[in-house]
Amino acid sequence: MARKLSTLMLILILLLLLLVQNHAASFTEAPTPQPQPSPNNPMYGATQGSLQPQECAPHCTTRCSKTAFKKPCMFFCQKCCAKCLCVPPGTYGNKQFCPCYNNWKTKRGGPKCP
Fold it and tell me: Which superkingdom (predicted)?
C-alpha cells in the first residue's frame, strides 16, 4: 500500500512539473516591440521623404566621411538629398533604401548620387 502511494505521489509531482514548464514557456514567447523611426535611429532618413531639407547636411557628412573626394561628394549628396529627402545609410551602397537617390542618373547613365 505504501509503495502504491509513493508511486502515485511521484506521478503527481512529475505532472505538476510538466504543467509548470508549459506555463512558463507560454510567457517567454511574447512579441518584441518594433522601434519607431526617430532621429536617433540609424534608419531615420534612409527612406524616401523621411528627411527635412535642413537635415541633409549631417546625413551627407556621414555618407561622404570616408571618400577622398569630400567636396564633390558633399555637393552631389546634398543635391540628391534636396530632391529625394533621403540619404542611404552608411558610407557606400545601400541605395535600395532610397529609390529616388538610386535611380537619378547622369546624362551618360551613371549614378548621379554618391
Answer: Eukaryota
- Give the N- to C-terminal CA distance of the chain in Å, as an integer: 85
In a domain, 106, yes or no: yes
Of 52, 50, 46, whose CA–CA distance to 98 is shortest?
46
Q: Is 83 exposed, middle or buried (0-12, 13-18, 19+ CB in 10 A)?
A: middle
* C-alpha–C-alpha distance, residues 81 and 44, integer Å: 13
Q: What are the tens digits of pLDDT across the range 4-54?
A: 778 878 887 877 777 777 665 555 555 555 444 444 555 556 667 778 889
- Give the pTM: 0.59
Give the domain range for residue 102. Answer: 42-114
Residue 13 lies inside a defined structural domain of this protein: no
For the four alpha carbons of 65, 75, 89 and 56, in that order, the dihedral sign comes to: positive
Give the C-alpha distances (Å, rounded to integers) separating 78 from 15, 18, 20.
Answer: 67, 62, 59
